[in-house]
Design goal:
One of its GO terms (biological process) is S-adenosylmethionine biosynthetic process. GO terms for molecular function: methionine adenosyltransferase regulator activity. This is RmlD-like substrate binding domain-containing protein. Pfam families: RmlD_sub_bind. InterPro entries: dTDP_dehydrorham_reduct, NAD(P)-bd_dom_sf, RmlD-like-bd. The strands form three sheets. The chain has a seven-stranded parallel sheet, with helices on both faces. A two-stranded parallel sheet has the order 7-9. A two-stranded parallel sheet has the order 8-11. The longest helix has 21 residues. It has a domain of 200 residues: NAD(P)-binding Rossmann-like Domain (Rossmann fold, 3-Layer(aba) Sandwich). The chain is an alpha/beta fold and 317 residues long. The two termini are 38 Å apart. It is globular and about 60 Å long. It is built from ten helices and eleven strands.
């Protein structure tokens, strides 16, 4: 039996699956929570909006760490259901933080680079840089950060609440639609159809980061904090990101080359945001990883091109 224990929320999701695996591979005693895709064994069915259910799971499994991956992460879906999103992205982590603070459980809250404005010339952003989300998704995640940290502060448990900001993610998926990066593989396939005409952003800069790497960093952050007697001396906000930089159009170019498919029916759009579109995307939200480096945590990442070449080769076998 391991002497280290963790719970991962949203463990049936795109990121949560890899976070769960990272802890399991390092011989932690780990359980995940899910809802519609819970298996009842590794991933337990828990309604995170129900404080009684969350209380029961915390008291039964007594984790030292909770990694909160569950969230509404689609900017477009957020805009269509702002109230529902606020419940998921703000009130749920607030309640979870309160329950964790009462039990002296370390909570790692997964946030986003979209808490920053991403205006030209501002990046890379340090953890203490001024925030200013350009869309409602970023605002709800920023409000979630504040909710989590304020609950731990109110309980006198500063240092038990940690925010980890990450950029757009890619990695092993059950469906390409799980990721704004993976789904571009489907876009390249669709571009092979006669008459296809696809407009693709070639303006905003993105730093696709592998979910397996994020999982490893979550585990390393947890271990670092559990090994520190004075947790309040550690930074409450951390950031992790690959240094690989692409526009969505450049990713389509790469995927086309890897798959041996032309992308002449995909047209690059260099004009930036349409001012009439409700959801605005930032130009460049590149995250500095200095705070993680200062803690001695490995911030290396898998090579984006190499990972996708291996993935496509494996799929073709």
């Amino acid at each position: 039996m391991s002497d280290k224990s963790a719970i991962v929320t949203g463990a049936s999701g795109f990121l949560g699956r890899q976070v769960l695996k990272a802890f399991d591979r390092s011989n932690w005693s780990v359980k995940g929570t899910g809802f519609s895709r819970a298996d009842g064994t590794t991933i337990l069915k828990v309604d995170l909006g129900n404080a009684a259910e969350v209380t029961k799971i915390l008291d039964e499994y007594k984790p030292q760490v909770v990694v909160h991956c569950a969230a509404e992460k689609s900017p477009d879906r957020v805009d269509k259901d702002p109230e529902g999103t606020r419940a998921i992205n703000i009130e749920t982590p607030r309640s979870l933080a309160k329950l964790c603070a009462e039990r002296s459980i370390l909570l790692i809250y997964i946030s986003t680079d979209y808490v920053f404005s991403g205006k030209v010339g501002e990046a890379p952003y340090e953890t203490e840089a001024a925030t200013g989300p350009s869309n409602l998704y970023g605002q709800t995640k920023l409000d979630g950060e504040h909710a989590v940290l304020s609950e731990f502060k109110a309980a006198g448990k500063e240092g038990f609440g940690v925010v980890l900001r990450v950029p757009v993610l890619y990695g092993p998926a059950q469906s390409n639609s799980e990721s704004a990066v993976n789904v571009l593989m489907d876009t390249v396939q669709k571009a092979q159809q006669n008459g296809a005409k696809i407009n693709m952003d070639h303006w905003a800069l993105r730093y696709p980061t592998n979910t397996e790497d994020v999982g490893r960093v979550c585990k390393d952050v947890a271990a670092r904090h559990l090994g520190e007697s004075d947790r309040a001396s550690l930074p409450q906000i951390l950031q992790f990101s690959s240094e690989d930089k692409y526009t969505k159009y450049e990713m389509c170019q790469l995927f086309g080359e890897i798959m041996g498919l032309p992308i002449d029916r995909i047209e690059p759009n260099t004009e930036g945001n349409d001012p009439n579109v409700t959801v605005q995307r930032p130009y460049d939200c590149h995250l500095s990883t200095k705070a993680l480096k200062d803690l001695g945590i490995d911030v290396s990442t898998q090579d984006f091109v190499g990972w996708w070449r291996r993935e496509v080769r494996a799929f073709r076998k």
